[in-house]
Structure formats: C-alpha cells, structure tokens
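Researcher: Last one for today. Full complex below.
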Amino acid sequence: DAGVTQSPTHLIKTRGQQVTLRCSPKSGHDTVSWYQQALGQGPQFIFQYYEEEERQRGNFPDRFSGHQFPNYSSELNVNALLLGDSALYLCASSSGTRDNEQFFGPGTRLTVL
Amino acid sequence: KNEVEQSPQNLTAQEGEFITINCSYSVGISALHWLQQHPGGGIVSLFMLSSGKKKHGRLIATINIQEKHSSLHITASHPRDSAVYICAALSYNTDKLIFGTGTRLQVFP
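Model: Here's the assembly. Have a good evening.
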C-alpha cells in the first residue's frame, strides 16, 4: 500500500514564475492538507481539500491556490513566485472527519532564485 | 508567544541514554501529534493522542490535558533516532494542526 506521494521532489524556479506541486493521498484517504515549512521552522498550514473543495485555509495570500481531483489527489499552485516562497512543501492525507490522524508525504523542496 | 512550544530546541545524547522532549500548548485541542522528520524532509507520524499515554517500541508519549503539556520519551536511544521531533496540536476550534518548531536530536555512538 503506497503511502502519500508527492512530485516533484525538488524544483528550482525564478521569481515571478508559477509552480504546480502534486500529491497523491494514502489509499482510502479523501482529505488532503498542504503545509509550507521554511528552513528551521515548523510547518505552516496552507489549506485543506475535501470532496474537491477547499475546506479550510491558513494565512496565505491568494497566490497560493489548490485543487482536488475526483480521485482525491491534489495540486498546489503558487503564482508570481517570491524568494520567500522557497521552502519544503508537505502534503498530508487523512480520512474525512476531524480528529483523524494525518499521514505526511516526503515533501517537495522548492527553491526560488 | 507561539501557541505550541517545544523544549529543548536542540538535544545531544550518548547512545543508550533516556531522552525526554517536552511540548506545551495554549489552545484547546482535540488531539496532539508527535512527528519525526529526518534530513531531507519526510515526516513520519509517531503518535496521535488525546489523553493518557501511548507506547510504540522504545517510544512513549504522554499527555496531560489539564496542564496542556505532552512529553515524548525515547528509551535506550540509538544513533538512528537522530532526527527533528515535532509536536503538533490539532486545534479544537479551527481543526487545524499547529506545529511547534521542533527539537533537533542527535544521538552519538
């Protein structure tokens, strides 16, 4: 049983570009959460998708958007990249209702030059 | 002040030592997670608990809801335990995970 997978593993972009990161949840999970982890910091919640809709959102600008597909996989899109967007982007999946344990993917390391 | 605070920030130990990492939180929670992050980034969920104590092998997690405090213990530590350990509180009100900044553990042979 594959756990949470993310692609790509590493990515280098320049300021102003756009990026799309992808996440496939653990089998049987229908909820995907995205986090940004800056170097030396704990992860920060970006948003959560459930039933193809954004259910919750953290304090991130509208440049950060997402999508969930019918197979529960998800994408994170970041437009107009800034240097400060350089971070590890983590995806976590869980099953439906609140309080369920989240399982994390390996992350995508984004570097913005 | 962060809503989730961990101590210590850095910890070094000799192989075989008993390790304790502490986590305090100021929000109402429905659960608390302990996570392990190795160099390279991948996060592994160690425990999710809302009361009492849980044990997996050499790892033990406890939580005191009244005191808003949790501890992660590692018995007979080993160099392969070297990692960053992160405490994350699942806020009851917002249903969001709030993360501590992590404790970097290095265990030397």
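DSSP finds no helices and eleven strands in chain A. The two ends of chain A are 37 Å apart (CA to CA).
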